[in-house]
Every structure is written in structure tokens, then in C-alpha cells.
């Protein structure tokens, strides 16, 4: 890691304090603080992020990564691997979802090695440089150095070869149907891959074009394990190409690569538009500048080097998914291949996110810091519905039958309530109503158990619908989001009334004998053999202690169910004080989410997964905001670090990172589809959020330190502020927020009901 850490120090300005206490006081190039290897030391049994070093630009259609895993393996790059098999164009949002439209390039020497194992080369992190905009590594077995830099739909490779009479570049479009054609007179290779992991896609091809700056010494193609020397074209289950070059010591072979989901011509157009005649260094500088501009929307100061690196490494992860699936044709029109019907259609399209994860903080973060990209995403959601008849809940791309909930409602509602305009809200309203009242074509689209839910007010435990309690709780919140959206766009009261009423359905699963949520049978009796520590059915990747807090929109109602504020706070406390016991019997083994909770030494608090991530902020609704301040800082300090093992569970498309970014600012969106952020306490002495409208939110906490994590007092624009929440609408006007921090909690501030955040019961 020495080389990486030295590279990250570029542009730092430190105070003159002791090295141990040095604080970063100014940021020149935020991209220099990002470690793309954060979270890569992971496995299916234990996730420290389950990330890969994504070399890309924000929300780019294509990402690139060194590939240590075998073809088609979800874990494309793992930190403990010692061989690289290729450099892969990827669209993978997570290892569990795997990939689509992937292909790889790999330089080799010493013979015509094209098989993924034969061509693999040893490498070391000591000879690896990983940044968001540039990747470099030395391939020891081939004595080749590879450099890579991206654009939205294209990339440049720079491969430095030794003196050799057998230098080659392998083009591997992977299996499940692929094609290559070498065009020697143009130093060009075209091809396509049809490989994908999820859903059922029509007319799916990722077309690619690769242009080299050196002539080919020889041309070969292969299919499976069979090499055809001299043949320039190949189609089959697993077709590929192998082109040779004359290389002297230090010879550089450059390659420009682009792709398209539409056609070869569009791939060529993407290449000409995004790279054209630009050299490698120009493309690299452009990507670096773009990252600095996007990351520079948030400027931090007065934190340790570790805190700054962790902050910008998390911010980097929030800027990838969902990624663009649309392209710009020769008429400068925005067009896309549709994952729903296979047609080429006008308008925006995105893919690569699971709303079960990202509705909580990732989308609210975009609405605050990068609303223009979410405006495109909302237009893309309208196209999803028009082309497929449903909104996706997990798109990778199109519809994937995984996870629960109807949380597209939250994603749509929060965007509009946070001020986004200029897209087809009427179509989105139609989509939300359709999804909320009907079972979809698969259990993860629409609402599985909708007839039961609409009649009984819950999805029964005993009707063979898995994760019934989790579905009920999320449907209730989603109904609230629909109510909020309908109210905001002026729908008649009688039309939206039922969604408001159904948003109280969470109460149907509260068992007062346990003070927790519990599965309920169709006849109204409770599920038998209830164990609040049992993970899984009727919950999703958690137990009752995790899901009982999933009442984002009506915490006051939950406080009342649990016996009032004192009992509520006591129950929150118990999450941290209980031992991390568990019952994994539903799964037949310990899943990684369980293991991550067990080893974290935070009791039953399972920050490595999404259902409980908002729970820390609920103390604000019951007169104990200082406990939120303590646990938010504790979680930031202990659960995150810009290292290969730096997350405490799956990063999940920016959600776990967005929790950190919000929490470092000092507030969090407990209830998306409302105007409010619930207070925690800021991490840095100063932070400036530069809004897209030109305004700034300046957060000052000059006395902030490791010990001074409690808010003594707070001012907004110079006026004393006693509430436990901030208004999105007011922040958009620009604001200066001053925190007085202390090592002792202020147990009188924020304890009156007038200070509490929004709850539907109080409406």
C-alpha cells in the first residue's frame, strides 16, 4: 500500500501540529484522497464492502476494472488475489447481481496465451496505482505495464511491452454468445458480447470497437479452447481474438475502446465523440478534472488524513449507480436500447441499482447534492414504466427478481418533494398506483401479496409469501411516499386518502407482548415459534430487532406503541447492549450479514446491512438526541476506513457510503419523501456543500474533535436553532450552520416535542 498512500498525498495541506494530530485544513484535489481499493478485501463469507476498483467517470455507461476472478464470477477483483486475468469493461452493481455486457482485454508475451488461466499474470499491490480516473499495474509474468483511463462510454489503454517476438493482446468477449472480427487494414477489432446474469433480455448485445495505434503482426481468433491461426472472424459460444505486435523494449501499444448497446456504428460514434484524436494523457486529465469537479461539490476541512480519505472514498462510491444506459445518436438525440422490449427508443434510461438499498440515503443524497442527474433518472423511470409496464425495484438491467418492497415509490416521491421538476410526473403517478395495488410479473416487482395487504392491512405469514413482515413494513412506508407524492402533485384528497390510511398498516404487526414486529397469520393470530433473534422469514436479511424500527414516516406512532419515550429510548439502547446472538436456522448457515453483525462488537446493531441504518437517528424523536450524536460518531469511527477492509458489510450501490457522507455532514434522511433531515453531529470542523443552484451550505464546528462529539448549541444563519431536524427547502436557499461542540452531552437541547422531526401521527 505504500505506493498508493504516497500517491494519495498529492495536494494535501496540513497544519503544523504533531504528525499524530495533523489535520487537513484545505483540499486542492479531492480525487487524490480517494482509495478505490476500499472494500475490495471481501469474500462471499465476509463482506468488507464487496467492491471493485472502478475506473470510470461519474454515472458513466461503462466502468472498467482489473479482473482477478474467473470469467462470470461475481467477485471480479479481490484484494487478496495475486493474479490478473484481464481488464474488464463492467456494468456490475454488486457481486451478488453479477454483470452484464462484459468483455476484457489482456496483453501477453511468451506465446499465444488466450485462455483465461494461461494468460493470467502475477501482480503486486506494490506495483499497482488505483485512482478513480486512472489505473496502472505491472504484469510480472508478461513484463508488461498496463495503464487505463476512462470516459462515459469509452476508454484508452496504454500497454508498455518488453522486447519480444511474441507480444499479443487478447480480446475476450466472454461466453454465452460472442463475436469478433479483426480488420487489419484499420488496426481495428469489432465484436459483441451477449453475456448477462439477471432477468430475461431481448436483442441484448454490447457492441465494441477497439482501435490500435500499431499494425498487427499477425491475426488470430479462437472459440472455446481452439485457436484458429490466421482467421480474422469468429462467432460462437465463446469467441475471441488474439492479435500480435512487433515490440522492442519499452514499446508502447495504445488502444482506444468504446462500446454501445445499440450498434457497431453507435459504438464507433461513441469512440469518435468521447476520445477522437485525443491522446492518453488528455483523456486522463479530462477524467481527473471531472472527478475533481464532482467530488469538489463538498469541501471538508479540519479532519484527520484518515477521515478525509474515508469521506472522499465514500463520496466516490455514491457517484456510480445507477449508471447511464442511454447514448447520443448521430442526430444528437438521446436514445437507448430498452431492457424491457429490446427496442431502440428515445429518451433516458439507467440501470444498476436496488431500491431496497438506495431509497434510504443514496437517492436523497443525489436530490441534495446532484439533483440534475436524478432528474435524468426520474425521466428514465418513466420510460421504464412505459416500456415494461412496471417500475423496476432492482435493475441490472431491467427487472431482477430479488429483494422485497415497492420502494420505487420512495425514489419517485422524494425527488419531487425535494424540488426536482421537468419530467413526466403523470406517468410516474400512474406507475406508482399500478405498482402499489397489484402483484407484478415476479415477486420483486409490484407488490407480492398485494391482495392480502390491501384487504387485511398486512401480508400474512402463512400464505407462502416469503419475508411477509418485511414486505408489510416497507409497503406501509411506500404508501406514505405515494400519499406524499400525490398530495404534492395535486391529486384529489379522496384519491390519495387510502395511501395515507394504509401507511399506518405497520401497526398491524406490532406485538405488544414483545414490543417488536412479528409475523401474523391470515386469521389474525401471531406466527408461532417466534424468536426475535432469528434472521430471515418473515424478515429480509435481518431479524425483528432490526426491522421493528422500519417505520420511517411515523416514528411517533412507533414510540406510542412501545410505551412512550422512556421505553422507546430504553429499547433503542438495548440494541447496542445486547450480545450479538443470532439464529440462522432459516438460512441453514451463517450468511455474511449475520457474521458482520457478530464481529462488529456493537450488539444487535447490524450497520453492514440496510434495514437498521437509520435507527441511530431515532433518539431525536424521543428526547435523547445526544445518543444519536454518540452512536453516529461511533459508527463512522469504527465501521469505515479507506482501506481494503474499510466497510462493515456490502457497500450496495452507494447506500452505505451515502450514510457516511450524510452523517459526516451532521444529518440524515430518516424519512425520504419528507422535507426533513434528522440531526446527528458533524464530523469535520468545517464542511461546505456547493449546491447546483449556486448557493452554499456551510457547516462550522470549530471545536469538533474525537472527544467533542456532542452538540452544546446550534445556530442557523446566526439564529439559535433548537430543533432536531433541518429543512431541505431551507438548505437550498443557502445556509450557514454553526455548531458548538463539547465532550459532554447537552441533555436539555432538543428534548421538547416541538424539536422532534416529522411523524405522520402528528400531521
Automatic annotation (TrEMBL):
One of its GO terms (biological process) is glycoprotein catabolic process. Its cofactor is Ca(2+). It comes from the Bacteria. The keyword Plastid does not apply. Residues 1-19 form the signal peptide. Residues 33-260 form the Glycosyl hydrolase family 92 N-terminal domain. It holds the Pfam family Glyco_hydro_92N. Keywords: Calcium, Signal. Residues 266-743 form the Glycosyl hydrolase family domain. Monomer. NCBIfam families: aman2_put (TIGR01180). This is Putative alpha-1,2-mannosidase. It comes from Leeuwenhoekiella polynyae.
